[in-house]
Every structure is written in C-alpha cells, then in structure tokens.
Fold DUF1905 domain-containing protein.
Amino acid sequence: MIKFKTTIGQLDYLNMKYLEVPKEVVDEFGTLKIRLVCTVNNSLNFQCGLMALGEGKAYISINAKRMKELGVKLGDEVHVALKKDDSKYGMDVPEELAELLKQDYEGKLRFDKLTPAMQRYIIYHVSGVKSPNLRLDRAIMLIENLKKSVEGKETFRFLLGKD
C-alpha cells in the first residue's frame, strides 16, 4: 500500500475534480495501466485507475457524491492510500449482471472476449441505477446488443442501442 497527501484539483477542460498522484507514486506502481483500490481520509474506498497528467504524474477522478461523503471541496488536502486491485474486473459486478451471465452462455462468451475497459463499461452502466429491476433491464439490453454486434468491433454506442 502506498500512502500520500494531495489536494483536490479540477481539470477545467473536462469539468472534473481529481486527486493528483505524484510521479514517485506512479513510478512505484511502474505503469498507468493498473487497477487500484483508493482509500481517501481512511474512510472512503473505491476502485479506480490512473490517468496521465503529464510530467510523470497521474490523476484519479473523484465525483461530487464521493466528495460530499468525505465532506471535502476543491482545494482541500486529503490523505490517499492506494493498493493494487486484484479483483477480476477492477470493480464489483452487480448481482443482476452476474446472474444473467451465468444463465446466458453466448452472452458470457462474448463478454469474456471484450477488452477489460469494455467489460468495466458494461459493469459500470448496469451499476449506475439503484433499482434491481432497472439493473436487470440494463444488463439484458447490453448483453443482447453485445450478442448482435460484430465480434471485435463492439462500440459503446452499439451496446446502448444508439447505432
């Protein structure tokens, strides 16, 4: 586990708040292509990845909901602890999607062939609603569209039914 202090910054061109990860921390992990578990102020844990910030530094995005949970605002200093995420997908799979993939052999085969980023996109999109019924509806829509897509040419837009 690597611990450091940082301040909450803002990337204006993305209208996004972030936690800056110093070059020394990035160097310790040896790559930006890593999934991590981030703990902020010893109280909030979430799964994340590193994005290049320039000059060897990186950033982790932090949304308004998490900032509110922490009681912090732009410019505040926070304590961060990072450790490698050893979970299969780099995030928790909603129960509804996991059950669908158990029952839909073709859907599971296609899901397993996706890039890790595309798999996380599906997981994230299904997780994005509170209602179990809506999570199941989203899971079914995404997996059905995945099965209709050309293997190796899947796009987010097609999975969402927008192509």
Remarks:
- The chain has two domains: 2-84, 95-159.
